[in-house]
């Protein structure tokens, strides 16, 4: 491990296979003391929590707690969701069938709900023995890439909305806000059948604008009815992506 650090100077060190014995057995305390105090990356390195059977979800810069950890709410400690596209294995399994793989929609659901709650997401792909990537993995990653190409501004360089991560009126809606907290991103994972999105968390101001990311020239109408903000969506055929759309509300306020 020290050779790895000295040779490659990684910014992230992700330990695994910790469950067989406690941290003292692996000599994790000694190694981490060196890593944080004397190693060449002591001022920048970040580690996870898998350093022994006694450290999971207790010690580390980021908590992974368990595979596919996704609490659905803000956490006090930095955390990440480590998951794999093939739901049955972390490696490559030629016997896997189509139902074993997460769909593009499921992957985007996982990304959105994780980022909305302040988590980092780790998406594993198991290569074949010759290092090639199975076409179904490529397809899933390409679909996620297409979605992020349009909607990435709601994911990258954003932060959780402290007041509301998951909408109170529509469960398939998650939120992030931009760096200065003035604009909110409404990540709508399912298109409502009646074409009207009902939101329980944000409120408009006199200067608010409501638009769909990827459709910059289309302004959306919104009205307040009781405690629900109703947004009239454009024709679904205009949706810029297949796997959920993002609405940006500028200069919003909290209900």
TrEMBL record:
Record domain Alpha-L-fucosidase C-terminal: where: 165-250
UniProt xrefs under InterPro entries: FUC_metazoa-typ, Fucosidase_C, GH, Glyco_hydro_29, Glyco_hydro_29_N, Glyco_hydro_b
One GO term describing the cellular component: lysosome
GO BP terms, alphabetized: fucose metabolic process; glycoside catabolic process
SUPFAM superfamilies the record matches: (Trans)glycosidases
Enzyme class label: hydrolase
Pfam families referenced in this protein's UniProt entry, alphabetically: Alpha_L_fucos, Fucosidase_C
UniProt EC number: 3.2.1.51
Keywords: Glycosidase, Hydrolase, Signal
Domain spans labelled Glycoside hydrolase family 29 N-terminal: 1-153
Keyword Glycoprotein set for record: no
GO molecular function: alpha-L-fucosidase activity
Similarity annotation: Belongs to the glycosyl hydrolase 29 family.
Function: Alpha-L-fucosidase is responsible for hydrolyzing the alpha-1,6-linked fucose joined to the reducing-end N-acetylglucosamine of the carbohydrate moieties of glycoproteins.
Name of the molecule in the record: alpha-L-fucosidase
Organism per entry: Lygus hesperus
